[in-house]
Design brief:
Number of domains: 1
Number of strands: 4
Distance between the termini: 15 Å
Strand order of the largest sheet: 1-2
Helix content: 10-25%
Structural class: alpha+beta
Radius of gyration: 13 Å
Strand content: 25-35%
Shape: elongated
Order of helices and strands: EEEEH
Number of helices: 1
Length: about 60
């Protein structure tokens, strides 16, 4: 994965959790260096896994530090 400091061997992981139960409903692992393109696939994965669309979500700006 390319970073601001060169290349590292690693992955980028995200997880969506149900707010009430705090159970992970959609994990995703990608080789993308940041999260900017990961929100739409995560929302689709939530619906596929649970059969329901998320009514609310929170996400960061996908900035890399």
């Amino acid at each position: 994965m390319k970073t601001t400091e060169g290349f590292v061997q690693g992955d980028n992981a995200q997880a969506a959790a149900d707010a009430a139960s705090q159970i992970i409903v959609a994990p995703r692992v990608t080789a993308a260096a940041n999260d900017r393109q990961q929100l739409a696939p995560m929302v689709a994965q939530i619906k596929q896994n649970t059969g329901r669309q998320a009514r609310e979500l929170s996400a960061d700006a996908g900035l890399q530090f």
